[in-house]
Amino acid sequence: MKYFIKTFGCQQNHSDSERIESTLKARRMTKARSYKTADYIVINTCMIRESAENRVYGLVNNLGKLKKERSFKIIVTGCMVGLAFRDKTGKYLKKIRETMPEVDEFLPIEEIGFDNAPVRQDRISAWVPISNGCNNFCTFCIVPFTRGREISRPYQDIIDECRQLKKKGYKNITLLGQNVNSYGADLLVGENNIQVMRDLPKKYFGKKQTGVEGLGIPTARRLDDLLVGRALAGKDPIQAPFAEIKPVYVKHLGRYRIPTLFPHLLEEVAKMNFEKVDFISSNPWDFSDELISVIAKNKNITRLIHLPIQSGDDNVLKRMNRWYTQKQYLNLITKLKKKIPAIKFSTDIIVGFCGETEKEFRNTVSLAKKVGFEKAYLAMYSSRFGTAATKNFKDDIPHTIKEKRWLTLEKLINRPRLSLSRN
Ligand code: SF4
After folding, report:
1. Which CATH superfamily includes the segment(s) 2-111?
2. How many other CB atoms sit within 10 Å of the CB of residue 281?
3. Ligand 1 centre and the CA of 38: distance in Å?
């Protein structure tokens, strides 16, 4: 039996596909050179934008025509299936079943697991997933619905995987997650409590109550005791022993947010002496001083930080449910530039979000000029099923204006030469 995997979307999806491949190999299947000779065609889907979703429909439709000539199975997995299985109304599952009757199986990615070592596509650089899902619910974003709530991989599993990669001669590591810098919050306080913990008032973190003690969580003796996975398997994550490594409580907008273990994890991986350690995606709200100092201390940690801004206007940020202002973002950039002089930034920006006025867009342009991004992943807003923006706002910016705004930023950030030659 031969398989072929087609992956749409981000690094996390590509990393998931490496684990899908290992599962297929474990079933003694071999890789087909092309979909034309495959018995199993796995499509790992993305639905961050409408266009990504439409590409999947188009591909399945074309494969459906081929099915009339020869027999093979189509398995669809990834974000579309994640959403279908999480949507309690059943509407989305019904929709994809009706739109893609050619599909033999809709496979939730969670069924793949971490039992088999991923079949890596590269011998130098490796992706290592550290968390999956997101609790932030930016109003435009479908990820919390497709991937579910944020779940961190056990600390020791990540360390073991990185050590293995080092032994195998890998030079570059990228730690992956939708919000990497919030890694570990669920390990510390239990995944069911994570939403409650997000914005606890400061009194819970008074001076004498720093670290996990303040939460009544037992302390551990040694870092090696971080047997979080086993603690989770024991169905009592709060009992997970933590201690000598103190969780970092990030202060944001004057309030303490979640505890995170990311600075510790990043530093431990960096100390394994990889040539480069990268992480993606981080978000402004969990970018603690501890994280900045870990990056500053370890020269092999990336100097190109991906820090999504999405919009440079405070009102748009509020409508997007992004918990910072333009000023706070710029303060963070300034702090990073001061502590790490060689630092550069890339970002994500959405243009034409619901109700975005010309003035609001200009604030994004002005922020981009101030930061001087190396690169920006620019997107024109498109409404996504089930999100708060789709339910509460109108997608009212004409496509032509979205295109114009997109091009303005493209010329400013990604193609400055083009901008010069045209002006
Ligand atoms: S932080 Fe916001 S944009 Fe990023 S995955 Fe989570 S909800 Fe989506």
Report:
1. Methylthiotransferase, N-terminal domain (3.40.50.12160)
2. 21
3. 35
